[in-house]
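Protein in question quoted in full.
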Amino acid sequence: MYVCCPDGHPVRRAQLTSRANDKNIPKINFAASVLQQEAHALTLLARGLDTSFCDAVDCLYGISGRIAVTGMGKSGHVGRKVAATLASTGSPAYFIHPSEASHGDLGMLVSNDAVLAFSNSGNTAELSDIILYSARRGIPLIGVTRNSDSLLGKHSTHLLLLPLVPEADPLGCAPTTSTTLQMALGDALALTLMCHRGCSPEEFHRWHPGGSLGRKLLTVKEIMHSGAEVPLISSSTPMPEVLCLMTGKGFGVAGILEKDRLVGIITDGDLRRHMGITLMDKTARQVMHPDPVVVDEGTLAVAALRLMQKNQITSLFVTRKGEPVGILNVHDCLRAGVE
């Protein structure tokens, strides 16, 4: 069954996931129609992308300064979020409030910056000063609006037109569909710039050291044990010394070296398998398990944890160009919040 959304387009009646009486059905259906309408608008926006979008990306990529994002009202809220997204994905950006700009903050803009302005109508009065200032100073202006004949549309160096679609509210007045389009286009600009710059996971981690993102991007090198903490010993070492090393370091494992290369490991399990009156007469090479599982120091900690879980082991030796430089224990990952 279908119902009509505010602009008259039919949408499929939402399926209720829990018991509801008749008075709830109109609410669910109206909410679904809002989402359908905004999704339709995003489809139109994607289909309408052309070379002007590429020109805007090239302009923002080519500046040596920062991207000043601006907008008033709900478009200003969008602008703040877009500025944060740009900055967090490798494109230095800041938000400048149009009214504050008219009272001195225009001094924040310099000639090697670019302005990214959001305005649905394109004629927001508070934006006029920053638009005209950019034009006078030759500062590139990327305008996001649905009105090419507006002040913003006429003065934009690169104009990104939004599709002419109604707002999703019953009166057609509240910024809803228009701000969704602005937000999505801002994300598209930021992420296209990010891809154009060739952003690496290491760079992204530098910008997001905290929270769950930071934990997901931690590398083994950042949480491993190194230096004197690493239980390494020569393959010719008698087993009594190996046992002392394993006990002293506390990892339940020893890395066996030949010419500074890791050739094997001895674990608590290896000791049990070789337990007998001759164990203490053997050398590390005679007891070791060859070809141990190792990780490079640049490996993501979450990938190292998965590797330990897959192989049912609790520690991994960490290498740099084939040479052991550290050891990582499953508890190191858990303490760092990696899971």
